[in-house]
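Data deposition worksheet. Section B asks for the primary sequence of the deposited chain exactly as it was used as input, without tags or linkers unless they were present during the calculation. Section C holds the resulting structure in token form. Section D is free text for depositor observations; keep each observation to a single sentence. Incomplete worksheets are returned to the depositor.
Section A, Depositor: J.P.
Section B:
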Amino acid sequence: MRAVGAIAAKCAGLLAALALASHAVAQRTDTLLLNGRFVTLDPATPRAEALAVRDGRIVALGRSAQLRRLAGAGTRVIDLRGRTVIPGLIDSHIHAIRAGLTYSVLGLR
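Section C:
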């Protein structure tokens, strides 16, 4: 009788896991970046070729064929055509007043 109870418990756990998995698959991504070369800085997975974004967060990283399945009717799909993507913040700006003072002190007019 214990064996039957254990099997029933395992089946219930499996059904719960399948329900959660189907819910995750049902949620489509907002943006897919495909056919790229992603540098992850993660030693376990140093490179990937596709990335999925939902609600402004990265939700999946992997192969383009796998992640393409997450696209829905409203998903923005971007083909990177082999371009490299690296993590980071790119901030381009100048300090105009400091630059002006520096140039005036140096006599660069």
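Section D:
The mean pLDDT is 78.
The CA atoms of residues 44 and 107 lie 54 Å apart.
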